[in-house]
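Hi U.,

Before I forget, here's the chain from the pilot set. I'm dumping it here mostly so it's searchable later in email.
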Amino acid sequence: MSTSKRGAPKAYHHGDLKAALLQAAAALLDEGGEAAVSVREVARRTGVTPTATYRHFENKEAMLAALATQGFDAFTQAMQEASTGAPQPFTAMGIAYVRFAADHPNMFRLMFGPAVADRSRSPELVAAIARATSVFDQGMQSRSDVTADARVAALRAWSLVHGLATLVLDGMLPGQDPEVLARAVLDSKGVVKRNPGAR
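Structure:
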């Protein structure tokens, strides 16, 4: 019986199979949302068997949790980069929040939606969410007009930008520039303008 490399699982050709699987899953998420991600299709695109995939993710939800973790890390980085050195850090952060949602709608829905039913089963995801929340809270504290309890003020601000991001993703504000909208709701001096040619 032959034991040549030709019969060996393709998984062994990957230097980092887990990263390759997540890359394929992220592409599927971008293409068709959470419903388009399946262990079988991720395995096929990566060139391995589903069994090899299960060595890294026990099921689809675990794979989605890992994707959401990556999403939250990118989200946190976007808010940090936008607010660093900005004259109005929280406004810059809020704009980055809405921009991220507009640029990555399927990832944003995965991060905040019900696809990962029990986030507590992924310590990595819980930690990523905590980092994002901490950065957002720090941005909130930079506002000079915060007079209410810090937690209540942060929740109010979060509800504002998250609600706006959701409205944008759901197509409820057609013809509007998401960044201009974010600036308008976060800065009383903002003026909402329609995109040129919008009806």
